[in-house]
Write a structure and sequence with these properties.
By secondary structure, the chain is an alpha/beta fold. The protein has a domain of 176 residues: P-loop containing nucleotide triphosphate hydrolases (Rossmann fold), CATH 3.40.50.300. Helices cover 31% and strands 26% of the residues. The protein contains 7 helices and 10 strands. A 6-stranded mixed sheet has the order 6-7-8-3-9-10, with helices on both faces. A 4-stranded antiparallel sheet has the order 2-1-4-5, with helices on one face. β7, α7 and β8 form a beta-alpha-beta unit. α6 packs parallel to α7. The longest helix has 16 residues. The radius of gyration is 18 Å and the shape is globular. The relative contact order is 0.17. The protein binds adenosine-5'-triphosphate. Adenosine-5'-triphosphate binds next to β1, β2 and α2.
Length: 254
């Protein structure tokens, strides 16, 4: 085997036997546009090694999405270190980042980001295929049933409500079987009742053994978390259980 083949195989075969772990050490992220520098994250130290429902809370512009993008290896820090599953990915090649991300992290977005020309089933099947899972159609059917959409498999996104579309997006994330779910304002487009259902669904995934990180500006949502990481102007200003203790989704108001 020549050296390039060996490097390729190594990069596309991350060690999946290690447990899920997120480590950010002294992470800084700056964006430079013309002669303006925006510091989105400053000296962020974050360690998650538990399967838990974690809420990242902060006002608009505090760096929540930037933090999620760092954890999900969608963006690289200006300074500091990002490691997933104990592997330092800070200086890793795009190929190595893609390979690890593919088997570790799945994303859920505020605007669902479904493929409009694919049915619910095909959207979810795509998730299973990207992750290289066998029997992708079977996996997709099972995950859609898990999120309560067994009777909507042939529907296209425009034929589904916002809450149903978000369920499809969650099913697509689950179809990858990745251990970390990163959700950016997943209830932002939904009414209160639907948002609570989506939150419950995400909470169930944490109870089933996933690490679920949900970004929100809505403090009320953070009351159901196991752990709340609060950001202000790019810095973590608190990290711990919700003040007042964890409550049930049924006790939320917004
Ligand atoms: N690609 C980029 N180029 C330049 N500046 C950026 C970029 N992405 C984010 N920023 C800046 O970094 C800061 C943090 O942005 P970020 O989107 O992480 O905040 P946020 O807390 O997620 O905000 P929101 O809740 O409004 O989505 C903001 O000042 C934003 O303008």
């Amino acid at each position: 085997m020549d050296q390039s083949t060996s490097v390729h195989l190594r990069e596309s075969s991350p060690d999946l036997s290690v447990g899920t772990r997120i480590d950010l050490d002294d992470v800084v992220k700056q964006y430079v546009i013309g002669d303006t520098t925006v510091t989105a994250l400053t000296d962020v130290n974050l360690h998650v090694d538990e399967t838990a429902f974690v809420v990242v809370l902060g006002p608009s512009g505090s760096g929540k999405t930037t933090l999620l993008n760092m954890i999900g290896l969608l963006d690289t820090p200006t300074g500091g270190r990002v490691a997933l599953n104990g592997r330092d990915m800070t200086g890793a090649s795009r190929g190595a980042q893609f390979a690890l991300r593919r088997h570790t992290v799945s994303f859920i977005f505020q605007t669902f980001n479904l493929f409009p020309g694919l049915t619910a089933l095909e959207n979810v099947q795509f998730g299973a295929e990207v992750a290289g899972r066998g029997s992708a159609a079977e996996v997709a059917r099972a995950e859609l049933a898990r999120v309560g959409l067994a009777d909507r498999m042939r529907h296209f996104p425009h034929q589904l409500s916002g809450g149903e579309q978000q369920r499809v997006a969650i099913a697509r994330a689950l179809a990858t079987d990745n251990p970390i779910l990163l959700a950016d304002e997943p209830t932002g487009e939904l009414d209160f009742g639907t948002g609570v259902q989506i939150l419950e669904l995400l909470q169930q995934q944490a109870e089933a053994g996933k690490t679920v990180l949900v970004v929100t500006h809505n403090r009320e949502l953070s009351r159901v978390a196991d752990r709340v990481i609060e950001l202000s102007s790019g810095r973590i200003v608190s990290d711990g259980p919700p003040s007042g203790g964890k409550c049930r989704t049924a006790d939320l108001h917004w």
